[in-house]
Design goal:
13 helices; globular; alpha/beta; 6-stranded parallel sheet
Length: 250
């Protein structure tokens, strides 16, 4: 088992996994970001979406099944509406699950109505991740409002605030250790707006989130392969069934 952090290793040990089968290597997102930084798109994201060059934007991407519950999803859409009406620049990315929920709950008219505002940009999923990375690293990105686990890691590495629209997170280290992430649970549109207002109005909080510790290491792939190579050279057997590890049938 290859754990991103020591915290993850300790969880696995408490679950009963043997210590000699767990290695802390860091998070694979590190290598993915570095690879993508070297792969420049032919066109800039700001050529594709010129509107993004005006102001600082919150990029909203919601896709988790838990947030497609009618109450939660409606709260998120109401939050987006209130943010736009208060003057925030909001890029709403329509994911596949988002598309279904907008139509199922008859909330699409709200999104269509927001298009009259210059500070609102409605897009489909951006086809090139290099565009996403270019935007996140630019001065025009204020924060990500997301329910993605991967984005929580990416924003930690990129030094931008992550506003996680969930009631809990599988990346608690970004909240509790690095302080680059804040949970913004979809209780209501008003609650989401108040949370973002609070962060936006506090330069101290923003600075803390942008300067948080980078958690996920470096050259993670090399550590992964080096560990596997060493085990192969030792003729070790690192892969086994749990019932063998726990000696259930001895």
């Amino acid at each position: 088992m290859f754990a991103p952090l020591e915290l993850n290793k300790q969880h696995l040990l408490r679950e009963g996994h043997p210590a000699n089968k767990v290695w802390v290597t860091g998070g694979v997102v590190v290598d993915a970001l570095e690879a993508k930084r070297k792969m420049k798109s032919e066109k800039s994201v700001f050529d594709v979406y010129p509107q993004l060059e005006q102001g600082e934007w919150i990029r909203v991407d919601i896709h988790r099944r838990g947030n497609q519950h009618q109450g939660r999803f409606k709260a998120i859409i109401e939050g987006v509406k209130q943010l736009v009406e208060k003057g925030y620049h909001v890029n709403f990315v329509e994911m596949n699950t988002t598309k279904q929920s907008l139509d199922m709950y008859n909330l699409r008219p709200i999104i269509e109505g927001l298009k009259k505002h210059d500070n609102f940009l409605h897009t489909e999923v951006w086809p090139e991740f290099s565009h996403v990375l270019e935007f996140y690293e630019s001065k025009h990105c204020f924060a990500a409002l997301t329910d993605s686990g991967g984005v929580q890691e990416e924003m930690n590495l990129l030094g931008k605030p992550c506003l996680t629209c969930r009631f809990n997170t599988d990346r608690p280290e970004t909240v509790m250790n690095a302080y680059t992430n804040i949970l913004v649970p979809p209780i209501s549109g008003e609650f989401i707006t108040k949370m973002i207002d609070y962060i936006h109005n506090s330069s101290e909080i923003q600075q803390k989130m942008r300067s948080g510790k980078k958690l996920y290491g470096e050259e993670v792939g090399k550590k992964f392969i080096s560990t596997v190579k060493g085990l192969m050279e030792q003729r070790a057997k690192p892969f086994s069934w749990t019932h063998d590890e726990w000696n259930l049938f001895d």
